[in-house]
From TrEMBL:
The keyword Membrane applies. It comes from Metabacillus niabensis. Keywords: Membrane, Transmembrane, Transmembrane helix. This is Tellurite resistance protein TehA-like permease. The chain crosses the membrane at residues 9-29, 41-63.
């Protein structure tokens, strides 16, 4: 009985983590496309957030502040 509860909690945790990873990757890609309008940079951001969700999010948020201050056009 306890084994089934632990297994269920683990399954829920994995599903929530996958939703977080996919959500941050999609959000980062869309946000980069909105602000930079460069597909290669946006794809890189999406892949970085998918591969390294927590570290990638920290890096992207710091890069985002930098790139918001630069007028690309």
């Amino acid at each position: 009985m306890i084994h089934m509860k632990i297994e269920m909690i683990l399954i829920i945790f994995v599903i929530l983590f996958l939703v977080f990873v996919l959500g941050t990757a999609v959000w980062g890609y869309r946000d980069a496309m909105k602000h930079r309008k460069h597909p290669v940079f946006s794809l890189f951001i999406g892949l970085m957030l998918f591969s390294f969700p927590v570290l990638g999010l920290i890096i992207y948020l710091s890069l985002r502040k930098y790139y918001k201050n630069i007028d690309v056009e």
